[in-house]
Amino acid sequence: MREFSRDGATVILILLHTVVTATGAVEEGIFTNHFLVQLHEQTDDAARQLATEHGFDSVRKLPFGEGLFHFYPKDIPQARRRRSLQHKQRLEKDHRVKSVFEQEGFGRRKRGYRDINDIDAKMNDPLFTKQWYLINTGQADGTPGLDLNVAEAWELGYTGKGVTIAIMDDGIDYLHPDLASNYNAEASYDFSSNDPYPYPRYTDDWFNSHGTRCAGEVSAAANNNICGVGVAYNSKVAGIRMLDQPFMTDIIEASSISHMPQVIDIYSASWGPTDDGKTVDGPRELTLQAMADGVNKGRGGKGSIYVWASGDGGSYDDCNCDGYASSMWTISINSAINDGRTALYDESCSSTLASTFSNGRKRNPEAGVATTDLYGNCTLRHSGTSAAAPEAAGVFALALEANPDLTWRDMQHLTVLTSKRNQLHDEVHQWRRNGVGLEFNHLFGYGVLDAGGMVKMAKEWKTVPERFHCVAGSVQESHKFTSDKSLVLTITTDACQGKDNFVRYLEHVQAVITVNTSRRGDLNINMTSPAGTKSILLSRRPRDDDTKVGFDKWPFMTTHTWGEDPRGTWVLEVGFKGDSPQRGIMKEWTLMLHGTQSAPYIDQIVRDYQSKLAMSKKQELEEELDEAVERSLETLMSKN
């Protein structure tokens, strides 16, 4: 330990001859031929003369401390295990020198950059290095570090073992050599042909490859020299063929979504109403009943987990007009491309919970999602939110292996808490924080799924408290509005306080709305919570020319107020966006609150979160520095 005086203050330099690693192990120091030299005389000329005399090519005055100079060679320093005693002793004997310290070398790494060979996930599958959404090292012009962080979950030993995921789609090629070993025949069925063999129907253009590609993302086997690797490569995959027929029926949908709910853990759906920017549609009566039964009775009462692609309608559509993606019973997943931007086909809405990945926006042939394809083939061209939902199902399978007792609501809470902003950015919608400090984005939800973070939290997770529903209030009077002036309505609520169904901590919030307009596509609806969190319930859809149907008791849903206290005044703002004058009549707004009476984890999380927010970055760094100094001193003292 040495002291330097500057302007009456004492600066303490702690010189350690060891390096303490992140695991607490002590390593021998690495020495360089760079020296910190303090001179009695502080002029640059004196320092340059001294450096030249002692064989140093360069010298630089340091802006901190009195008379401090950096003596160093021009060439890149060579790492050595022993100190350069000769240099040091000669300098120390010079009468112009007050003190000398040889600089030690230690490791620092670029945040985000990772070499795939440095990650303990060695796979011999030929497409593994191209699966940037698993481990992104910058392949295909992507952003290093922007991935699902599956490597951490795998290193912890979680690979989806014991979990079954059903792909509800156009069938899967269960004979594919990368899927066959993980295929769950017992849990599979073909509701299009009414037989137990959900093999895709052949077409010349391979149109029915969708389900097979989704299945590979989830459960493609590892280390078999075939195609790539699934997110949960030891999970079981079931095929539910239900899309390949001229039209859909409520019976087929309901039968598919309720198929073997005690065997199937997760249902992945990469489909929904037409993404044409003018359709408003959702599940019919039987399918709604099947979903309700699934979350209440599936998996032995823990609840079936439904994962839904948010939609590919782009800026022309709004996923809150899709009753499957906007359902409270589903986990709606959007996508980001490999550099963190939004995909051109991404729909935005307040019901999206989180995001995974689709393809790259650039024309790089390897920027798509690498997975299995029909007839034993592989592909690099899977894309869309179709690709995003199965990735999420795979991450959830890892979490279920870590904790099989997770309920369907536990999985949603884990998604909210562990998803990360990472390097996602949306040019239209900014990242914001809700009333309890949770960061969200109108398009990406709570961020990109983090498999490592989710399995670690899942291991110690305690099931959330009972869920309650409260009708917070309703505005039933008709109100007219035009393009000239927005309609503003309010509901002040105590959230059923004092009753059995009191809701104190929010999960989902629904605004059930009946409204008719001269042009439905120009309608814009926003809702603000008592905590000040604004949810965009409906954005403009320029292709929607409806003048008659409007929205009839349509349940617009938001997840953005998660964890907030719903008591207080809610504000609904309804207006038009567009070039032509429009008019409308609002007939009903009913506010539905869903959540818990006791804190599932919110109190402690919020306290921790808000204490961090209240602390400046400088203070955080100072605290980390103090801790590092204490650890270093303890290590030094223990060695002495």
The number of domains is: 4
Strand content: 25-35%
Q: What summary fits the major beta sheet?
A: 7 strands, parallel
Given as residue ranges, the uncertain stretches (5+ residues, pLDDT < 50) are: 1-28
Query: What is the helix fraction of residues, given as a range?
Result: 10-25%
Secondary-structure class = alpha+beta
CATH architectural grouping of the largest domain: 3-Layer(aba) Sandwich
- Name of the CATH first level of the largest domain: Alpha Beta
Question: What is the CATH superfamily of the largest domain?
Answer: Peptidase S8/S53 domain
Please summarize what this structure is.
This protein has 640 residues and is an alpha+beta fold. 20% of the residues lie in helices and 26% in strands. Helix 5 runs parallel beside helix 6.
